[in-house]
Design a protein that fits this description.
- It is a single chain.
- The chain has helices at 3-138, 142-191, 210-216, 221-230, 250-266, 271-300, 307-314, 326-344, 348-356, 372-382, 387-394, 405-419, 426-443, 471-488, and strands spanning 201-205, 233-235, 242-246, 320-321, 324-325, 448-454, 459-464, 496-500.
- The protein is mainly α and 510 residues long.
- The strands form three sheets. A three-stranded antiparallel beta sheet has the order 1-3-2, with helices on one face.
- α6 packs parallel to α8 (326-344).
- The longest helix is centred in the N-terminal third of the chain and has 136 residues, at 3-138.
Length: 510
């Protein structure tokens, strides 16, 4: 074989080997590139998947937040709508009640108008009849006119006879009343008790002028605490070395006077000590009430009463009616009844006991329903008082039938005591009644703990239970009370309604 042929074969082989090697290298590079592209595609897909998941989670969170916000807004609007609905219902009820009252007034006016029209028709009819009679008389003959004249004279004569009979009856009654007047005058002269004029304020003397500043305290905290705890009005003015305590309720006024006197003597004036002193003086006044009831029963000569009855009678020491002290009035009525019963031969003990206890109902809680006569009778019956005495108590204003002469004597003695010149004052009683009505009406609202009428009835201070009334409800309560006062009461000027809500946290270090 020639050498160049061998070289040629070798070249071909090497060329084939290079081609094969190039083919495999190219294939390897293609495969590697494909794998890299596949890996890159998978990375892109994974990254896209993660981003999609994150976007989905974010979208869900935003959607949930939007739903929650929407629910809160819906609830808030629903509550607001409910409140507005309640307000509209109340206004609708108020309007219905007003319309009903107007309809009732209209019906009453229509009835009155019908009555007036009917009476006008009757008058016209009578006028026509009289005119007809006059015309007939003008055309009558003499005999007939004479007979009509005689008939008229007979009618006048009968009228004169009736007047004479009434005069005779009146004289007979006057003769019968002379004895009664003699008995009443004798009883009044023998009792001759003092006239009582009650006031609505008390003056507390001070050791010096500096004490006024201590009573007021920083920013007025001491005087506010005192007025709130005692339910009185403290007046600090230019009067030298004295302050004035004003309150329509004489029990609260006495407690306030005694407490403020002790505080000025002690010198420690701060809210906690003020409340402690007022509590102690409240218990002291209760003791005075018990002693006053026992002393009054002794003075009236009435024995055998239950201690609770005596305690309730003692409360009358701080009660007035038309300016007349009720405990003094009860003792006076008992003495008058005893004298009258002795003169008339009745049971003196029953008459005196019935007269002594006749106004015990005025010491009852003002929130109880019923008249003082029936309340007092029910109270005494509960504590074993004799039934005849109970009847005298219940019947002294004719609310039940009087069963005995002793009940009549108790009523007469009550009238004698109240009819003495200067014994009573109408203006003070009307003022006290208006003030008490103001407090009682305030206590009818839910959540009210205490109610004090101060500033001579120009302000009512209401203390509420903080666990039942919140701040928003306090504002609404003040508005409702003011509205009820406007609708149900008559008063001069204006009345300020103050609602106080106070939360206290108390604990003890042991």
């Amino acid at each position: 074989m020639p050498p160049f042929l061998g070289y040629f074969l070798v070249g071909i082989i090497m060329l084939a080997a290079g081609a094969a090697l190039g083919f495999f290298v190219n294939r390897y590079q293609v495969e590697k590139a494909r794998q890299e592209e596949l890996a890159q595609a998978q990375n892109i897909i994974q990254s896209a998947t993660e981003k999609a998941s994150k976007v989905e989670l974010d979208a869900r969170d935003r959607a949930l937040k939007i739903v929650q916000d929407a629910e809160k807004d819906i609830n808030s609007r629903r509550n607001e709508l409910n409140r507005e609905t309640e307000r509209l219902d109340r206004r609708r009820n108020e309007m219905d009640s007003r319309i009903e009252r107007l309809e009732q007034k209209e019906q009453t006016m229509n009835k009155r108008q019908s009555t007036i029209d009917r009476r006008a028709n009757d008058v016209e009819k009578l006028y026509g009849q009289q005119m007809e009679k006059l015309q007939q008389i003008a055309e009558m003959p003499r005999d007939q006119a004479r007979q009509i004249l005689l008939d008229e004279v007979e009618k006048e004569a009968r009228g004169d006879m009736a007047r004479i009979i009434r005069q005779i009856e009146t004289e007979a009654r006057e003769e019968g009343e002379k004895r009664a007047r003699h008995l009443i005058a004798d009883a009044i002269q023998r009792v001759a008790s003092e006239h009582v004029a009650e006031v609505t304020s008390a003056v507390v003397p001070l050791p010096n002028e500096e004490m006024k500043g201590r009573i007021v305290g920083r920013n007025g905290r001491n005087i506010r605490a005192f007025e709130q705890a005692a339910g009185v009005d403290v007046i600090v003015d230019d009067t030298p070395e004295s302050v004035t305590i004003s309150c329509f309720d004489s029990v609260r006024r006495e407690i306030g006077r005694r407490a403020l006197t002790r505080l000025t003597v002690d010198g420690r004036i701060h809210p906690a000590h003020i409340e402690k002193i007022i509590d102690e003086e409240t218990r002291a006044v209760e003791k005075i009430i018990n002693e006053a009831g026992e002393q009054a029963a002794f003075d009236a000569g009435v024995a055998g009463l239950h201690p609770e009855v005596l305690r309730m009678m003692g409360r009358l020491k701080f009660r007035t009616s038309y300016g007349q002290n009720q405990l003094s009035h009860a003792v006076e009525v008992a003495k008058l009844a005893g004298i009258l019963a002795a003169e008339l031969g009745a049971n003196v003990e029953i008459a005196k006991a019935g007269a002594f206890l006749h106004d015990i109902g005025k010491a009852m809680d003002h929130n109880q329903e019923g008249t003082h006569a029936l309340l007092g009778a029910e109270f005494c019956k509960r504590y074993g008082v004799h039934p005849l005495i109970v009847n005298a108590i219940a019947a002294h204003h004719h609310e039940v039938e009087q069963e005995t002469v002793e009940a009549i004597i108790a009523e007469a003695a009550d009238a004698i005591s109240g009819a003495r010149p200067g014994a009573r004052r109408e203006d003070l009683e009307a003022y006290i009644k208006r003030i008490r009505t103001l407090e009682e009406m305030s206590m009818t609202f839910k959540g009210v703990s205490q109610a004090f009428a101060i500033q001579a009835g120009r302000e009512v201070r209401i203390i509420v239970k903080p666990e039942e009334i919140d701040d928003l409800e306090s504002t609404r309560l003040a508005r409702d009370i003011a509205k009820k006062i406007e609708e149900t009461m008559q008063y001069p000027g204006q009345i300020k309604v103050t609602v106080i809500r106070e939360t206290r946290a108390v604990d003890y270090a042991k």
